[in-house]
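Supplementary Methods, section 5.1.

A reviewer requested that the exact input to the structure prediction be made available. We therefore reproduce it here, unchanged from the version used in the analyses.
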Amino acid sequence: MKVLILHSLYAPHIGGGAETVVRELAEGLQRRGCKITVLATGPDAGLNLEVLDGVRVYRAGLDNFYWHFTQARPNRFLRLGWHYRDRYNRGMRRYVRDVIAHEQPDVVLCNNLTGWSISAWDEISAAGLPIVQVLHDLYLLCPKDTMFKNGRSCERQCGTCSVFRQHHPEASAQVAAVIGVSRFVLDRITARGYFARASRHVVHNSIGATASPPTTPRPQHSGLLRFGYIGTLSENKGVSWLIDQFQRLSINATLEIAGRGKLDYEATIKNMADPAKVRVVGYQPSERFMGNIDVLVVPSIWAEPFGLVAVEACAQHLPVIATNMGGLPEIIQDNLNGLLCTPADPDSLGRAMLKLYLDSSLRQRLSGQARASVAAFLNTDRMLDHYQSILHSTLHGRRAYDEPEFPDLCTPQVEPAGD
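The structure derived from this sequence is encoded token-by-token as follows.
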């Protein structure tokens, strides 16, 4: 089976957990015998091909005012123009058309559509190929893909979002199967009339189990407790809220903030951080970072569709403080592997940090239960099985002849002899 994977970004351009999972899918399906091609946006003009760890990767120069994977924040009018063009970017269709013509895939697995727009669906359908759409974010409801505005998570679409997404639900009827990376994101989007004709599935993101994970829970801290945050530095991630709540506490603890964001927001959090208590350390490999903290905090104040970093932390025997937003409660369960708080009660975050500081036995119990609680999310073979099955069923439903039965559907392609 030949699969084209379409996504906004691809390694080494990593914007978040979606890029980690898409790479895992591409390389995992390739190892299983599928012929995988990836199509992503890139900073250079034209269509550029490279081979990355055995996977053919096309990078298409974005036909818009700027490439969105940048730390600089364009002015408001440029951003509005960018999103207006991204409602339906006809210029990106030619890249989809060219790659389909050259690679001749059997099915297309669409992921984040930022930069591509839903014009990609039309081009794929014009080629007569079935579409499987994966929902990693809220792009189909909100041009910024977060449904977050004026410091708060939006309960419903605002006027701008409604206008910019006016015909999207009808266009989604072209999609044969839809996969939500959480029950939350699937229900949130389909409730708006999307994917009326598609089969619907929830496949939680998975990561490979750490090669040499800690064999025991974290030891009790000796007075100084180390809290940590790692991820995108942005307002919707709740980083400012975390720093403010932490600095209100009179406890013997430190807070490390790791990650990158827009330069103006990075400057904001550095200015508000007391260097005696809070360190902003920039990009850090997650495994190494988590090895040097005692508690991970995921203070998202938007409806986070999943939250892969919470899985990574639990795999490292770290208790997690997370908000009860979006898909995070599908990973973190209160008093099992962490504590839940809510942006609706701002002081709940500080209380959760204080509770874990004062109650070492609770922290130790959560640490001891953390890795087992996310065992299903550490099984990438299980995730790949689900994707293979859905791809196979989708393809089988669109073709008149029988495909090989799962799990032997990804038989190696035999190239004809000769030039």
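DSSP finds 14 helices and 16 strands in the chain. These observations are discussed further in the main text.
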